[in-house]
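Predicting holo structure, IDC bound.
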Amino acid sequence: MRKTFCCLLLVLSALTGILSCSKDDSDTRLSVDRWGKTVVERYGQLKVSGTQLLNAAGRPVQLRGVSSFGLQYEGQYANEDVIRWLRDDWNMQIWRAAMYTAEGGYISRSAVKSRVTDSVEAAIKLGIYVIIDWHILSDGDPRIYQKQAVEFFSEMAERYGQYPNLIYEICNEPNGRDVTWAGSVKPYAEAVIAAIRARDPDNIIIVGTPTWSQDVDIAAASPITGYENIMYSLHFYAGTHGSALQRKAEIALSRGIALFVTECGTSQATGNDGVYEAETLQWFSFLQKHNISWINWSLTNKGESSGILAKGADRTGKGHWTDSELSQSGKFIRKIMRNETQIK
Ligand code: IDC
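Done. Tokens:
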């Protein structure tokens, strides 16, 4: 009798094990689950509550993905083949279309916009999330091209606002001594957010923060009010930024704003040196602990150490790169995204 009881207990615990496993697999860290459901089919319309990014069912989610390189330089990868490959081989849940404004980007060459719309349309088809990144960099004050930003985001919101796949990142990295939160970034953000919200009531809008998207603590002291689903970007490069920046992130969280790491690198902030694997892993466990989504910079074969492709990798834009065409950083990040390296 006791034997039968024990057997029954064993069978029961095995069953609960199987059930809880399948529950975990169905809704975490997969671009497409074992039943063929894409991440957007499972999570649906994202929203923000306090410091947390939530799926439509109200459950906290962490997204992980890859950023394009500057689309004006290597726009050939912003296509369905490459994005599908990253979704299926890398388990990528979100793609960031980095459209520089200056440095030969949108302001002087508006045709680069088609690389953004190609990205968005591929992401919608493939059921992943996509960030439209207004990539200010050498033009450190977002107000310089505010008028163009309002026009651009109005058009994007009008065209794609009804799709839950879309996330807006309205100023990559504000920078410069005179570029403050109160004087530049916040008023710029309020203007662009108003234009987006007139056309898209709910998709997430991510606001850059001063000092190359590091001063999240300053933004948190005076956050944007009157709108739902606003997040703030935090950027790090593992060879340059460590515990001091994590401390700023913790202050921001304690003040109640939601953070999104829309760009991070395994190198130094130059995009080179490293790869700083141990430091990157430490950052990823910090982000996992706080349930903060992250996107890795970047898909390039330029030969810089932050890039995920090796220098000689195929440049035609067909994707399907072999292992030997990946850089050290690419191999490292791919394993993490495929859940082969556990983040503790
Ligand atoms: C870098 C590229 C590099 C390029 C430079 C200027 O990696 O090849 O020459 O831009 O166009 C950022 C920026 C991102 C930078 C990256 C590395 O958002 O555009 O890309 N970085 O320097 N912030 C911190 C680091």
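Confidence is low (pLDDT under 50) at residues 12-26.
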